[in-house]
Amino acid sequence: MTASLDFTTALFVPGDRRERFAKAASSGAGAVILDLEDAVAPANKDAARVMLATGFGNVPVLVRINARGTPWHAADLAAVAALDLAAIVLPKAEMDGALDAIHAGLAGRLPVIALIETARGLADARAITAHPAVARIAFGSIDFCADLGCAHEREALLSARSELVLASRLGGLPAPIDGVTTAIDNAILITDDARYGRMLGFGGKLCIHPKQIDPVRAGYAPDEAEIAWAERVLGSGDGAAAIDGEMVDEPVRIRARAIISKLLR
Asked: What pLDDT sits at residue 102?
């Protein structure tokens, strides 16, 4: 199940660029997503579907299919049903019957990562996280902004991100995967975006270029100050105590254990 997989960094690769598959698998990404949707032009959709493959590396392989209602959705599902994949990524996920059809069809053995990319998808997020086909949700933040007509900025997306974290928790799913940063060469910005997502409760980030992988991992790793704080907290014994002038009890220790656990992965 996807809960046990490392989705701190999930790297998209165009599905019609088979020569890039192995390179993506060796990039350091925690997972590779072969993309049949946004990265592939309509004229190349059929060819990309034929190029799908697994076994080109030691990382989990996923496929982002085309959305329900597109001319390619059914053929994509038939193709992925025959592959040894870690999961299917469903774009424009909503409670519109697509998840039911996947769960009941040949691809139903594969868990689904549901991309929340629309206003309706956000409104349906809690129902989506409760659906038996769904193993995790992710934020398609750029498409979401296009649907709402809002800016792709933190303030505009704070409520949506918070709802996805809450919906994942209520559905008993792992922390959601955050959307992409469009900058490729700005490592400082990428790391800061990743750290911001971690602060809100996200568990990883979608990547569009191998250059983003190390900065994202840096943002999701606890820094030296957090580690030192966690060690002081966990060394304070049981019950209530004072650390750095603040009260420490069991809920605070839970947070400290979570920080230390990231060092053991």
From this structure: 97
